User: Fold this.
Amino acid sequence: MNSLISNYIVVVSISGVLNALLALFAYYKKSDFAGIKAFILSSAASAVYIFGFALELSGSTMQEISFWIKVEYLGMPFIAPSGLIMIMYFVGLDRLVGRKLLTVLYSVPCITTVLVWTNDLHHLYYQSMHFREGAPRPLVDVVMGPWYIVQGSMTFGCMLAGMILILWQWNRMKLGYMRQMTTIFIGQFLPALGAFLYLIDSTPYGMDPVPIIMSITSSLYIWAILSRGMLTAAPIARENLFASMRDGVLVVDRADLLVDYNRAATEMLEGLGSPAIGHSLAQLFLPAGAEAVEYVMHSDPLVSGERELAWQRGEETYYYQVRSSPVQNHNREYAGRMIVLIDVTERRLLQEKLLQLATVDSLTGIYNRTHFVERSRGLLEEAKRTRTPLSIILLDIDFFKSINDRYGHQYGDLALQHITAVCGRHLRAGDIFGRYGGEEFVLCLPGISLKDAAMLAEAIRQDIEHSPLYTMSGAIHVTASFGVVEARREYPALEEMLSEADHALYSSKRNGRNAVHLYRGDAIVHFTNNG
Assistant:
């Protein structure tokens, strides 16, 4: 019997050493696992408890044994709460780990430690302690006090809560993390089972089996840390983060075959699901359009980059910012890449709307004056470089104020839209059409000579004259006056051409309106179909 207990003490001591090493290893290991402090505290507390228990077994007097029991309680009450906190970080519930929870979980162990060390004054933890009769070596039995029950309930409650949290996440866990999860579950279950058997007096010789069990669990933890990267991050927390990301994430291997994806990606890619695992990225991107497939086929997988793509989903077009980053294995070798899909449709539409507000007249839908001038200046520079003609037509609605005064501004707006529609029927693809201001419109015609521009202006004038604006108040007859100018051999500045066209326009106004006048050199002449 003495030999058996001596062997038990040796095994318990080894368990203490393993837990101490585990605490030191975790302390010095660089880790981004937020629950690492709770794990270190749990391992260190276990080491204190186990060494204290080994020294308790080696004690020969009640005073000596009582002292080492007090030492045990410097660690034992803190093991289960620390384990629960570590599991909460592991399963992604770290948001719940705050000051209030920590106060609740650690206040009971702190009170327990104080009560154990002062038990002779109140006997709230142990009512009495006595040597076990018939034992070959001094072994102590205790009579539980009221706080013993509180501490025992706290310990079992924390261990049970930890196991429940692991089982709650079990089906959500990917296969690659199952060994870590199983290790932590065993680390909770076996000590809880041993403590329960000890309480119901079902252990060999009535000795506490938990320190022996901890040699097994600490060995499992060391194995999991070294082989499975258990303390590098919280896998379930990472999985929850990966699954809850609003951006779509795809992970592919070296051959661009799908390895993993998150829930957001399934909403972005048609047909993405479990059967898609192992399929090529190009095949997955095919329904999104040729631009997406081209990006997959020609982007360098070894280089991080991003690109905004038009994305076809059914009959609707979305815009995704696609970011590609290479993924390396533990040997820093290329193992695949991660594709992040960020939905920027709303931003893109807002940008287009802002661009439209900056370039387009909101009433007529054609270019505003600023953008017309910007575009036309570029065409004039191109005409100068290529020595090709370019003409400007400026037109103004006749008696526009009387339309507003007689019919109201609503019909004045309709007249502006009517003129826009009539002019649009005569324009080529490369012509620039804008609202110059108020009731004035302007056209920039690249490649068009003065004569051809004058003929176009006359055609538009006649079309306006013979196309009344039909309203609920009846037909409104609208006419317009025109001024036409061509860039001369020296290609003047656009502002100079607009000024010359304006002079020709006012000649049309002064000479009866509803006419076309040309600015030809220093002379302004009236244009008719006869020239």
Observations:
- The longest strand covers residues 316-328.
- The chain has three domains: 2-236, 245-350, 360-527.
